[in-house]
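FIELD: query
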Amino acid sequence: LRQFIEVQLTDAEQKLRKSEDSLRRHTERTGAKGVGGYMSSRLVDLETKKSELLKRYTAQHPEVQRLEQQIKAVEEQMKQLPAEELEYARIDREVKINEELYTLLAKRYKEAQISEADRVQSAFIVTPATEPTAPIKPNRMMNITVGIFLGIFLGFVFALLIENLDTSIGTIEDVEKYLDLPVLGIIPHIELDQKQKKMVPRKTEREQRIYLLRSRLVVYHSSKSPFVESYHTLRTNLKLTSSFVAKDTADKKAKILAFTSAGIGEGKTITASNFALAAAQSGIKTLLIETDLRRPSLHWIFGLSRNPGFSDCVIGTKKWTDVIRGTTDFLMGGLGTEKILQSPGIENLSILTAGPSVSNPIDILNSPETGKMIKEMSSNFELIVLDCPPALLFADALIMGTHATGTIIVYQVGRMARRALKRTKDQLATLKVPIIGVALNNVKTSELGSYYGYGYYYSYKYYSKDNASKVK
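FIELD: result
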């Protein structure tokens, strides 16, 4: 802006000097006194006043009319002036205009200089830039340090995650060392043959589940099959367990065994049922009680009515001697007459179903009547088997475990995390529930291998095609 004004100021100065020279030469040549200049200034003043009045009034206003008359009078006087005076007035007017323009530009030029001098510098150099001797990025030392700490942290997280989700069992010794409990039995995995698969009901999911559970009962398999033998092995190992033998010699009443698991779907109900059937086939008077009052399935497997049952006996509406089921009920149930008649020792088995649903299973199981009833039953049977809910999910198994001679934890390899199994054992041990050992259920060859000599179990599928009876 200052430079622009400076150029305009120089131009105005030249015009002013030129007009002043013209006025001086005209005066020297003609001798004009400047009367025309005065009259010209007077005319300009009148024209200015007239313009101001016309902004507020019309042309017919008296003041405007009066100024109009004065302007005409000055113009008439100027017409009477000599030509030299008129030229003088014109040149003088030009000098005044140039003076005003020069004065204005000179003032603006000074203002621009002052403004430029007062302007504060918005940016200035604090430290001069220096040429770097090494690249700023990547910072290798920082990246290596962060990578090491991040690797350690992620490794710890992954290790913790794998440990909590690990369901693998390397060897039986690993299980026994991990839980500090003996493995009492290994129940092999069995497959349905093609004919049995075709006989699976297609109507409802419940019917399919009942059929698959019932197909795993020992009464549907040959007594010489490895599957049935695994339960006899479980019973034999149980009898040889030191804690069990010690209690057996001290108390001649019935042994009470509770079967539980860490979570649902591990096969505790079918394991308890087959253990009771295997004991009955061996001539032991056995009572199987359905103490899982939350999700009872024992009565479905044997084709029995749920009501009346265990909860009725505890409440006092029924006597246990009147509601236990025996051979007659099995014949009328869903197992099939042929299977019942072909099963030796089935008359030694009695079953007490869960009974009607209750809103407070804990109160029912923790009732003093429960203890009294079980004690009374132990005088009438040689073996009582309790099918309990999962110990890690409900306190029911912890309560019933206090009434038992011993508790067996059923663990399906590959279904639940090992830490869940360990937590189940610790939870039972905290309440001083006597834990006898672990039964590994539904074990496949890929999970144990042939190191333990259990490979012969898995020829069962071929064996069952020729000898095992079909499930009805």
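FIELD: remark
Residues 83-118 form the longest helix (36 residues).
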